[in-house]
Every structure is written in C-alpha cells, then in structure tokens.
Design brief:
The chain is of the alpha/beta class. The protein contains five helices and five strands.
Length: 158
C-alpha cells in the first residue's frame, strides 16, 4: 500500500503565506488587502501592507513600506540578494522602486491586468533599458491572493 506523504510547501510558498497574512491585516484595517515581505538569506528584513487610507498617502503601498523597512534593517539603499514577496503584481511606482533598490527578485501571487508592471501590462522590472533588471517569479499561491482581493471588493459593493 502506497503511503500518502504530506506535500511540502516550497520556500516561495512559505514566504508568500506570510505576505498573505499581512494582506489580511490590511483588510482588517479597511485597506486594499496587499501584503509584502522582503527576505534576505531566508530571514525577513522588511514587511508591510497597504496603508494608503490610514496614512492618506498614495505611495503607502505594501511594497514601498516593505522596501523602506528592509533598507532600514540592512542600513543600505540597495537590496542586493533580497527577494520581495507580494500578494499582487507591483504597479509602475512599486516596480520602479524595485529597480532603484536593486532588489534581486520579486515573487508575486496575483497578476494585475490593469496596472501590473512586472509583465502583465508593463515590464518595468525587467526592462533592459534600465540600469537594473529584477528577476520575476509569478503565480505563487495566486488563487489565495486573488481570493483575498475579490472578497474584499465584493464586501465593498454590498
């Protein structure tokens, strides 16, 4: 008889699950539920969730907050060797910040056909005309990431 072994999550899935928890925190605060963490050597060095409403700041995206926190932790304006995990594909502003921070990789869950800038609508993060290109991995726990966003907006329409 074949033994059923548990399916182990990849490192990307484990980190994305942490970003999803931050997205849930954002939803609890009536923010668009997007969460992000920055990881270096398998250690979280920065984290954030959307705080646009709370701070009345259109730049207070999860990615921007996580990048700033990581730079503070590492005492560097550059995030070489770091990976950003975010529940939704970064927008143009956030993709630009990824390039400027020289982060190594971005891993996102849900694609964003309306403003995604890591391959869906634009490809800022990997544009070879810029001084830095970011490796992009997409679709990690995408269904879970999409569900949080869809549920949030459905509750707003009621």
């Amino acid at each position: 008889m074949k033994e059923n072994k548990p399916v182990l999550w990849s490192t990307h899935q484990q980190h994305m699950a942490k970003a999803i928890l931050l997205a849930e925190d954002a939803a609890q605060k009536n923010e668009v539920p997007i969460g992000a963490i920055v990881v270096k050597d398998n250690i979280i060095v920065g984290k954030g969730f959307n705080q646009v409403e709370q701070l009345n700041d259109p730049t207070a995206h999860a990615e921007m907050i996580a990048i700033s926190a990581a730079c503070e932790t590492l005492q560097s304006k550059y995030l070489n060797g770091c990976t950003l995990y975010v529940t939704l594909e970064p927008c143009p502003m956030c993709a630009g910040a990824l390039v400027w921070s020289k982060i190594t990789r971005v891993v996102f869950g849900a694609s964003d056909a309306k403003s995604g800038s890591c391959g869906s609508l634009f490809n800022i993060s990997s544009n070879n005309k810029l001084n830095h290109q970011v490796e992009v991995i997409q679709g990690i726990l995408a269904n879970d990431c999409e569900y949080i966003l869809k549920s949030f907006f459905e509750s707003k329409r009621k």
